[in-house]
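Hi again,

Forgot to attach this to my earlier email, sorry! This is the prediction with aspartic acid bound. I've pasted everything inline since the attachment limit keeps bouncing my files.
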Amino acid sequence: MSHDHVIALHGGAGVNPERDYAKVETHLSELVDRCEQMLAGGETALDTVEFAVAEMEDSGLYVAGRGSAPNDQGVVECDAAIMDGARLRAGGICAAVDVAQPIRAAREVLENTPYVLLAGDGANAFARERGLEMVSDPVSHFVLPVGVEAEELLKLDDGLAHGTVGAVALDRNGQLASATSTGGLLGKRAGRVGDTPITGIGNWADEEVAVSCTGIGEAFIYAGGARDLASRMAYAGQSLEDAGASLLAEVARHRGDGGLIAVHRTGEVIMPFNSAGMKRAVAGSRITRAVAIL
Ligand code: ASP
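Structure tokens for the complex follow:
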């Protein structure tokens, strides 16, 4: 039996309401269409979310991959994670400095190691060993001089400029997957790692639900993160919508803000946020494509 398919994307909860996001909207709109066609053609949820996040990492439009914010040493440290809900297997890398597409390295960790997360030099060496594209001059590759998201975000009052990209999908076989990638917080202390690469916090997928989070990583960690949403549904019988709202309320209680995208095995999707906005897009076999920022 063929299931409904759904793709949802986010380009981060770090949004400046005064900025023009026309390019981002066009990019999200084209990308969500492409992903929807991939799923319609029988691609797996896992391959589709990896593709979506790698495209966003390469675009230079978000704080992930190209466009990432440097830390207090002027170095870009990237974090990413991916999870296959059907196999309940995940992979991630964190504080990686010269991996061009961090989500590809996360997928390699999932497929080719018994581990969930590789950090720093070990993550860089692993990506090189797996033959992934490496960057010879990370600062000029990742930090974009014009139109840098993080530069714009510096104008915000909260003092924490940040951004992330993520994708969740349900494929025609009824399987779920999630992928999330970030350059983290602008000016973060070298070595700081947030929620994004930590399976169960910034990223989670099982047989019931796939979730990708964005926002102040420390608050998501305190709040329990993406798996807390899944647990609220499993143990407390909450609806997808209530579970998403409860997680964000908990994030707020820990003085953070942000948002998430989640898709349930029934095809239901939520994209809540308690920040000024969240770049987001959704499409599916029974969902008309929608793109929004604020
Ligand atoms: N969650 C990311 C982090 O804390 C940042 C973001 O989503 O904007 O590293």
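The first strand starts at residue 6 and ends at 10. DSSP finds nine helices and twelve strands in the chain.

That should be everything now.

G.
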